[in-house]
Amino acid sequence: DAGVIQSPRHEVTEMGQEVTLRCKPISGHNSLFWYRQTMMRGLELLIYFNNNVPIDDSGMPEDRFSAKMPNASFSTLKIQPSEPRDSAVYFCASSFQLAAELFFGEGSRLTVL
Amino acid sequence: AQSVTQLGSHVSVSEGALVLLRCNYSSSVPPYLFWYVQYPNQGLQLLLKYTSAATLVKGINGFEAEFKKSETSFHLTKPSAHMSDAAEYFCAVSTSGANNLFFGTGTRLTVIP
After folding, report:
1. A102 in contact with B at a CB cutoff of 8 Å?
2. A61 membership: H or E segment, kind and range
3. Which of A62, B6, B80, B113 could link B104 by a cystine bridge, Cβ 3.0 to 4.6 Å?
4. What Cα–Cα distance (Å) separates residue A41 from each residue in A35, A85, A97, B104?
5. Cα–Cα dist B74/B9, whole Å
6. Alpha carbons A97 and A86: distance in angstroms, whole number
7. Rounded to an integer, what distance in angstroms lies between the CA atom of residue A91 and that of residue A107?
């Protein structure tokens, strides 16, 4: 079975550029989560969706970050403009009915120069 | 609000030795507790979960954890460490589901041959 699929796996960009990270959740899962992982702050929940609707975006750092889920099989996390402090690994995870067993993708490692 | 504390950010054991990773939780209501494992350059994977059934929970790869309410602990153990167990381990707590899942700061396990 296909797990959570994220792209790109690695992204290197320059400060001020737009970054778009993509996620395909596991088929049949109706909850999707975006996390950020850094050495300093560990794992932080940025936003989550239930049935394609954003439920809680209180973890989104600032207005430069936005996330969408146009359908049950696709979500994006966009950073515009990007800054060096956004450098991190961004994980997408999905679950069924907000069950606490999360299935994580392999992450997108973002480096902003 | 709930939280978890993982004691020891780094643990080293010899191959074949007992693995003990410590986790203490704080929760005002009966919690759900989890251990996740993260191998290098991968996402998190569920090892085991406690959901108020048996207090001794067995997971994948020979790991188990025991829920001790009196000690507010959920320590992870494995009788004999294998080189392939080298990874980062995260304890997590929830009171209702993935929308309020809180992760600890992680413990990096090193296995010495």
Report:
1. yes
2. none
3. B6
4. 11, 12, 27, 10
5. 16
6. 30
7. 4
Query: Cβ of A91 under 8 Å from any chain B Cβ?
Result: yes
Q: What's the length of chain B?
A: 113
Return the pLDDT at B95: 83
A31, A91, A106 member nearest B98 (Cβ):
A31
Q: Looking at residues B74-94, what average pLDDT do you find?
A: 96
Question: What is the pLDDT at residue A1?
Answer: 62
Query: Which residues have C-beta within 8 Å of that of residue B17, sequence separation ≥ 6?
Result: B80, B81
pLDDT (0 to 100) of residue A99? 73
CA distance A42 to B72: 22
Structure tokens at A47: 């936003």
Are the C-beta atoms of residues A36 and A88 closer than 8 Å to each other?
Answer: yes
Among A101, A103, A106, A109, the residue to mutate for chain B (most B Cβ within 10 A): A101
pLDDT digits (tens, 9 = 90+) for A20-41: 999 999 999 999 999 999 988 8
CA pair distance A90, A20, nearest whole angstrom: 11
Of A60-74, B41-55, B64-78, which gets the smallest average pLDDT?
A: B41-55
The pLDDT assigned to B100 comes to 77
Pick from B27, B33, B101 the residue to mutate for testing the A interface (most A CBs within 10 Å): B101
User: Does the beta-carbon distance from A100 to B97 stay under 8 Å?
Assistant: yes
CB of B63 within 8 Å of a chain A CB? The answer is no
Decide if B74 contacts B25 (C-beta within 8 A): yes
